[in-house]
Amino acid sequence: MISQEVLQAQPREDSSRGKNEARRLRAGGRVPAVVYGAKKPSIAVSVDPKQISKILRSESGHNTIFDLELSGGEKSKAMIVDWQYEPIKGQLLHIDLKRISMDEKMRVMVPVHMVGEAVGVKQQGGILDQIIREVEIECLPAEIPSHIDADISGLVFGQVLRVSDLPHTGTLKFITDANQAVAHITAVKEEVVATPEAVAAEAGA
Prior knowledge:
Mean pLDDT: 86
Radius of gyration: 24 Å
Largest sheet: 6 strands, mixed, barrel
Strand order of the largest sheet: 1-3-2-6-5-4
Order of helices and strands: EHEEHEEEEHEEEEEEH
């Protein structure tokens, strides 16, 4: 999904890379990052962690395509391809950004959302079991969906919703195996409560 977000990145000197410099950047409200892709050299930069968090929390998350502007004039479309959090405080530690060519297809992971109430749940008393929550797709950057809707309203016991059943639109191609199960209906497991007689018999055995 293409966003109107503009991420400003400031180049870092090669000599300034290292843990001490990274800590200094974070203390100053920035976070170290690397920009690569589009057959151009990789560049060490620093970015605003608040902007990164805003993009990651958006509907399309890390699949968001935004404008990346580097101090010095370079402008390009980009995506967040990797990010690291500090495990205790949840502070962003490092970001990997990839330049995007809008006319070249790319592969991304996209969430699968269940839509509707399955017959197997509503009328047959079963439980919906979603087996996978993301699928890998290939398409042009402008056609990357924020998510894929899976209609489960007709799902009954004994029926499996597979990747091949998901909606195919535009140039979107599924890379995940077409036979991969996405969801099915399972029976409600009844809890077996042992009677005093059964407990006594087991103890005697």
